[in-house]
Amino acid sequence: MMAAELDLSDIQGTVLRNRPMPYFGSYLVFTISDASAARQLLQRLVPHVTSAADWDNPPEDAWINVVFSFAGLRKLVDRAEDLAGFPAEFRQGMARRNVYLGDVGASDPSNWDLPHGGNGFDIGLLIMAGNLELKEEKLAIGHAALEGLAGVELAARLDVSVPSTMREHFGYVDGISRPFIEGQGGLPLPGQDVVKAGEFILGHENELGGIARLEGPEALWRNGTFIAIRKIRQDVAAFRKFLRDNAEAAGGEEMLAAKMMGRWRSGAPLALSPDGDDAGLAKDPGRNNDFAYNDDDPDGRKTPLGSHIRRVNPRDGLKETLTDIRLHRVLRRGFSYGPELPEDTFDDDGIDRGIVLAIINADPGRQFEFVQAQWINDGDFISQGERTDPIIGRRDRTDDFQFPAKPVRRRVTGLPDFTLVKGGEHVFLPSIPGLRWLSARQG
Questions:
Q1: Beta-carbon count within 10 A of 289 CB
Q2: CA torsion angle for 393, 394, 400, 402 (degrees, to 10)?
Q3: Contacts for 189 with CB less than 8 Å, ≥ 6 apart
Q4: Distances (CA, A) of 334 to 17, 65, 306, 325
Q5: Which of 358, 425, 430 minimizes the C-alpha distance to 93?
Q6: Does the keyword Cell membrane apply (predicted)?
């Protein structure tokens, strides 16, 4: 690895830190009515903000990180021109990008229940821990930092934790595949693609061969990044019913679930275990992500072209096209919220449950938004027409999923909305020196 080592002590920890397992966390978002109070809050918080130093062997399995919506940054940055060079997607806010992103119908921002930059979200605390006691300790730090600051008010709180199954609510093991960032230290796992640091961290070389940078004060943006936050409600009962009703034979639910995802629910990839689940493979980080598509499975006979994992990371499957997938890689973190739906229950209980996605990218337009609009919610790039992602895609255009099978191709229809977007925002995660810069501004 010839890339320069990253300034890990400057980078907020969530960019690189591995998610604890089990995990317990909270998303807390606040409004700012007094910029001086917000600066005081930052001054109190900065000593407790966790960096990415020792990311692979942290001294404490917990962290606090701080993010801002564009509305929040505008309240702390004196000169409007200092923010004019930030990406348009961030400045507009995710709610205003809804048509392009496919957040329509029941997923329209008018139905969201999580505050965003257009309706009362300025600054957020992301707290994550490996146990409840550590989480409470981090929350106590946040409460103490807010003491006496009337100009910063809590707008919403969303708690997350892994279900007792150690899987997300649809039953899949989550968080297996992620890119390796040049300069992070260590060595990539087998099958892990190595990506330029500037795809995720500003101030470093990106896959376009330039330095990922913004116009404006370098002290604000260097070693920072953007995170696309998505709160997604999962209709677990509908998902279970669909698998049950469309299974071809007894036990066929698991094969259909694997075809839709591209992995068995254990995490074993169809590319390496196409005919049945393999729990040992699923648990082996040296093998469970070590596969490609172009030479062995170009037509999707093992891993369907339209499956979820093949859409969000086509690997070498687009090798013969003009698309450079390295320009569209993201770092994805997923955190479940809400209670589990009891096993073998096929009726919705009306309780909100789902997943919060935190998608890290240095260029929201060509990374998260491209993947969401072009790969998840369109099928042209894989000759699937308007077919969308079978797990999380929009359903107002098409509602079917097809894949090669014997003796004839299999097509299932009537896919319901397994997921609904209930909130979202592009947020900026400054470096720790960037937080200090913001805290020292004079209003």
A1: 23
A2: -30
A3: 180, 285, 286, 289, 290
A4: 13, 16, 21, 21
A5: 425
A6: no
Tokens of residue 311, six digits: 């859409």
Q: Which residue in 360, 419, 398, 363 sits closest to 169, CA to CA?
A: 419
CB-count exposure of residue 30 (10 Å: 0-12, 13-18, 19+): buried
Mean pLDDT over each residue of the chain, to the nearest integer: 95
Dist. CA 200–CA 49, nearest whole Å: 19
Tokens of 17: 């830190």
What span, in angstroms and rounded, lies between the C-alpha atoms of 25 and 355?
12
Whether residue 250 is predicted with pLDDT greater than 50 in this model: the reply is yes
State how far the alpha carbon of 179 is from the alpha carbons of 3, 164, 192, 207, in Å: 15, 27, 6, 13
CB-count burial class (<10 Å; 0-12, 13-18, 19+) for 113: exposed
What CA–CA distance (Å, rounded) separates 227 from 188? 23
Quote the tokens at residue 327: 């320009």
Q: In what order do the strands lie in the sheet with 225-234?
A: 152-161, 24-32, 123-129, 62-68, 419-429, 225-234, 354-361, 331-337
Would the pTM of this model clear 0.90, i.e. be above it? Answer: yes
Continuous H helices in 175-297: 218-221, 236-246, 252-261, 279-282
